[in-house]
Amino acid sequence: MVASYPMQYLASFNFKPVEVVVRPSSRQCNAGDYESSPTCGWYYVDGQQIPSSQGFTCQCSTSQIFDATLGGSNERTRANLDCDFWSNPLDILTGRTPCSAHCLDFDPLWYSVLTLSPSVPLALSSSRLVSAKLLGDLATYTQLPAISNMVLLVPRPSGWSPDQILAGDRSQWLLLESSQFSMDGSQCDKVGTSFSAFRYQVDGCARAPQTCLGGQIKDLMAADALRISRGRVPLNLLTRYTYGANSTFRSFNGGPLSFALPVTSQSTSLLLLSVSADAVRLVTNSAPGAITGTLMCTFNSVGNCSHAVRSVEARSVALAGGASLSLAPPLDIYVEDQAADPQRHCWLYLYNSQVGAQQHLQHLQHLVGWQAKQTH
After folding, report:
1. Which residues pair with 113 in a beta bridge?
2. What sequence ranges are listed for the domain Generative cell specific-1/HAP2 (predicted)?
3. CA–CA distance, 93 with 90 (Å, rounded to integer)
4. Count of other CB atoms within 10 angstroms of residue 331
5. In the chain, at which end, N or C, are there fewer CB atoms within 10 A of the end residue's CB?
C-alpha cells in the first residue's frame, strides 16, 4: 500500500551557499548598486543581472583604527582586518583603510523543490467508464504520514536527465516544513537564503564569517547524519519514514505526477465505485423450479402462518440447471404457546430470481428441498 500525494514543482534551491571573503591588495572595495565592476562581481541568470548579488563590503572605521592602535577595545571585523595604524600608515593616511568584500557563492549541487498536496479522493479508469471515490479511511493503529503540506527536496546533479533524477538515491531526499524555507531569499538561516538576505543582514560587518548561511540543506543532512550515528531517527531525511527509501513517482492514467510513499500499516477504507451505464446490460438468470418434497422433523413450536406460529425468515439459494438442493440448516419454526393444535400450518413459497412465485405448499415442515429446472 502507498500513500499518494500530488506534486507541483516550486523552485530550485542550492545545497549550501557559502561566503567568500576577498581582501583586495589595492585596499579598495566596491559594492554599490550601480557599480559596473563591484569587488565580488555580479551574478547573472540567463543574461540578467541579479540585484544584491554584489555582496557587501567592510572596512576599518576610525574608532576601530584608534582602538587597535592604542590598545583599546578590540572590536572584531568580519574578516579579522588588521586595523592597526602602524600596519600601513601611508595607506590609512591617504584614505585607503583595510577593507574586505564578502561575496555569496553557490554549491554546484541544486535541489528541486516540490510541494505536496492532499491526495485527490477521486480516480478514473483509462477508459473513463469507471470511477472510484474515497469516502474515508477508518482509524488504524499506525496513522499514515501527515506530509500533505510538506515540501519534498530531490537532488538535481548537473547533467542528469529527469529519469536519472527520479531514479536517484532516496537517502539524499528530504521532507521539510514550509516554515524552514525562505521562498524569496530574504531571510537568513533558512533553506533558500539568497543574495538579499546575505547583503542586508543586520550588523553584517561585526559578525563572524558564514553567519546568515545556516539551516541550509547540507546543514540539515549533516545534523540528521549525526542523529543516525547515535541511533536516533532523522528529522528531515525521507528515510525517517519506514520504507521511505522505496518511494516512487507515479502518474495515474496520465494525470499529474504524484509522490507515492510506501506504508506498512494496514488500513480499511470506504470506496464508492461508479460505472457508466450507457452500455451496461443487467442480466438476471431465471428458471422455473419446484418443491420436490417436505419433511417434518420435531415440531418446535414461512408466510401466512396460522395463529400462534411465528413468521420465518426467507432463505436465498443459487442452483445450477437441473440441480437439486436440500435446504440446510433447516428452517426453524416456533409456536408462541404450549397448545397441541394439529391444525397449525404454514404456506411454503418458492420464488424465482424475479420474485415470481413458482409453487406454494401448505405444510408444516422443518426441512425443505426443491429442484431447479433448466436455467435460461
Report:
1. 11, 153
2. 113-302
3. 5
4. 16
5. C
